[in-house]
Structures are given as C-alpha cells and as structure tokens.
Amino acid sequence: MSKKTVANLSASDLNGKRVLVRADFNVPLDGDLNITDDTRIRAALPTIQALTGKGAKVILCSHFGRPKGEVKEEMRLTPVAQRLSELLGQPVIKCDDCIGDEVSAKVGQMQPGQVALLENVRFYAEEEKNDPAFAQKLASIADLYVNDAFGTAHRAHASTEGVTRYLRPSVAGFLIDKELKYLQNAVENPDRPLAAIVGGSKVSSKIGVIETLLDRVDKLLIGGGMIFTFYKARGLNVGKSLVEEDKLELAKSLEVKAKEKGVDLLLPTDVVVADNFAPDANAQTVSIENIPDGWMGLDIGPDSVKVFQEALSSCKTVIWNGPMGVFEFDKFAVGTEAIARSLADLTGKGACTIIGGGDSVAAVEKVGVANQMSHISTGGGASLELLEGKVLPGIAALDEA
Ligand SMILES: Nc1ncnc2c1ncn2[C@@H]1O[C@H](COP(=O)(O)OP(=O)(O)O)[C@@H](O)[C@H]1O
Ligand SMILES: O=C(OP(=O)(O)O)[C@H](O)COP(=O)(O)O
C-alpha cells in the first residue's frame, strides 16, 4: 500500500489552506485529568509543524476514550490542547465542539500557521457509525485532509474514513508513514531470522494473530497470560492461571501448525506463580509441570528468560506485543524487564526491534529502554491488525501515491 503523504504536498498546495488533520490524542490521564504519557501528542508534532511551516491553517481532530456518543466532561480534549500548545510553543485554538457554528466561526478567523483543536469527535454517535452527513459536516470546514491517527487507523469512522469522501487530497501524515514503513517492512521484507514475541492478557484477540504470524516468522515466543491456554491444551495443571477454555483446541492446533511450518514455537519452561493476584502475593518459581492447585502464573521464570534470550540473540528482526507477566507488580516484572533489556541490546547490535501495544510500550518505558528500540508503535490494535495482514480502513481511504 503506497499512499500520498504530507511530503507530497507543496507550499502552494498548503499556503493559506485549511487542513483537517485526524490525530490520535487518546492519551492516558490520571484522576486529576493530568496527561501521564504524551507520546501520542509528541508523535503528531512533525506533521503539524510541517503543515504550519508551509502556511496551512491546521484544524486538528481526535477521539478521546469511549464516550459512546455523549458529552462526557472528563473526556474533553482540553488537557491535550494545553499540552500541545506547550510542545508547539504556540497557542492552540480550542473549540468546544467538533462541528457547528462555533467551530465555523473560529476556523473562519484562523490565520496561516495557526493551529486549532476540535472537541472529541466521539461525543457524536455518528462518528463511530461513519455517518455520511456527520462526515460531511466535519469536512465542510476544511480544504484538504491529512490522517495521522495511526492508533485509530483500524477504525472505519467518520473522521478517519468518512471525511475522505469529501476532501481531496486526502493524504497520510508522517506518523502513519513511519508506522507503515516499520511494520509493513517487518512482515513483508524483514531481515531474518524474524521473531515475534506475543504476551499479555488479551488471549482471544491475540491467538488469531499467532496463527497469521506462523506464516511469516522463524521463531515465535509466547509469554504472559497466553501460555496457560497452551499448557492446559497439553493436559497440564494450570491452577488458577488465566485460561481461555474455548481456545484450547486452537492452541493445540497452533503447536501442530508451527511444527509443520518449521517455526520454532517457544513456550516458557518455568513460571513464577502467586497465591493471589496482588503485588504482595506469596510467590514461587516452578516448572510448568508443577503449577500447584490454587496458584496462578504471573510471570515467566528464570530458565525461560535464558531460553528466550538465547533464541532472540541471533534474530535480525523482533516484533514484541504484550508483556511477559504482570509487570505492574514489581514481583512479577522480572521476565518482562529482562526481555526488554535483551531487545535493547539486540538493537545495539543492529537488529530491528519493534514494540506495539499500550502495555508493552509502558513496560519498555518503565525499564527505561524505550529510546533503545528501533520503533515504538503508537497503535496497539492497529499494529496487530497490520501484522495480521488486514487492511486498515483509515489508510486504505487515502490517495494513492
Ligand atoms: N500471566 C498473566 N496473567 C494475567 N495477566 C497477565 C499475565 N501476564 C501479563 N498480564 C497482563 O497483561 C496485560 C497486558 O495485556 P495486553 O493488553 O494484551 O498487552 P498490550 O497492551 O501490550 O497489547 C498487563 O496488564 C499484564 O498485567
Ligand atoms: O488507544 C487506542 O487503541 P490501542 O489501545 O489498541 O492502542 C486507539 O486510540 C483506538 O481506540 P479505540 O480502541 O477506542 O478505537
């Protein structure tokens, strides 16, 4: 998929023009509405600055959370406008709505180089329904469209897909372009050996990805809450560990498929189990054949870490999605931290390392090695769908290069 980007727009395409830019400003907030991680805002800056630098009037829009078509005060984009203004070093004109008279009036007064931010598009149910009339209203305040919301590119919503029917050109921003470069290259044309590490707790949504990855990778390392479904499928006792009962047959068939395809499918050989799901739970390391009744596996064990590190050491490309354990609890963060450090070392030796998924990114941030990875994806769901080979509607709708 080769799409036109902001780089293809000249100063005359942009000077004095109103550009609707879809960003993904869905950032985490604490209880006092302070932004706790502004990665997604920073990631949108190159596109915004390229546009303002060429004299465009930049009208930003985004969703925030899942307000389900209602105005929710705690889901307003006000904290984002403030942070964005600090990062850009210029005022951001904040609108209280995303369509309507107030928006038209504010946009009508914009000067070249100015930046405005519309209110949360998901305050209208029409956004997620990709309602054409709503998309047309959003589009009516602009001359052209830039989509840079990689984290939302897998959603066919009015602000990601619908508006492209009314605005030409419709092009990709620098963030989407960069995400595609890394993620598509990793699956279509990787330096080999290629390994994928899949962990976390969203077993049912990720087990399908594992199936697709088996067609592409040389090694597949599985950790986190995913592993117990595989163990149970092998007939092992998993105590109170996370298991998706309806995926047992699939887990069994994936092990068979991996063998048939010659893919090295690695599951941990030992796990750290806890007597309850708590940071101060009692913990012990056991082999996977000896998980005691009533205990739950919350991390991979030291032997598994060694086996995983050995398997990764020769890899030239590694894609990681999902932590190895409950890294939010220090006692069960050891496996995740060790793998994060190994990937940082690998990057230093010239490998391409790609991290996707909100919690995996949080884990590498926690270890302090985020800047030692080749690419940190801003989209969890979007990067997975891309790795699965699915078409992302927010990107498919953009102009061909
Ligand atoms: N063994 C486990 N049992 C239960 N939860 C786990 C286990 N290992 C990891 N997790 C949890 O998985 C969550 C992340 O899963 P997921 O959302 O799939 O990852 P990501 O956001 O990186 O895609 C974390 O909150 C972590 O605590
Ligand atoms: O945070 C997001 O997705 P992610 O958690 O999969 O990275 C995006 O903003 C998409 O949000 P959505 O899953 O509510 O459509």
From TrEMBL:
Keyword Nucleotide-binding: yes
EC number: 2.7.2.3
GO molecular function, one term: phosphoglycerate kinase activity
Record's catalysed reaction(s): (2R)-3-phosphoglycerate + ATP = (2R)-3-phospho-glyceroyl phosphate + ADP
One Gene Ontology cellular component annotation held by this UniProt entry: cytosol
Major enzyme class: transferase
Originating species: Lyngbya confervoides BDU141951
Compartments reported by the entry: Cytoplasm
Ligand binding ((2R)-3-phosphoglycerate): 40, 122, 155
Domain of life of the organism encoding this protein: Bacteria
Keyword Ribosomal protein: no
PANTHER family: PHOSPHOGLYCERATE KINASE (PTHR11406), PHOSPHOGLYCERATE KINASE 1, CHLOROPLASTIC-RELATED (PTHR11406:SF23)
Record's subunit section: Monomer.
Keywords: ATP-binding, Cytoplasm, Glycolysis, Kinase, Nucleotide-binding, Transferase
Binding residues for substrate: 24-26, 40, 63-66, 122, 155
Residues reported to bind ATP: 206, 297, 328, 357-360
Name of the featured protein: Phosphoglycerate kinase
CDD domains: Phosphoglycerate_kinase
Annotated family: Belongs to the phosphoglycerate kinase family.
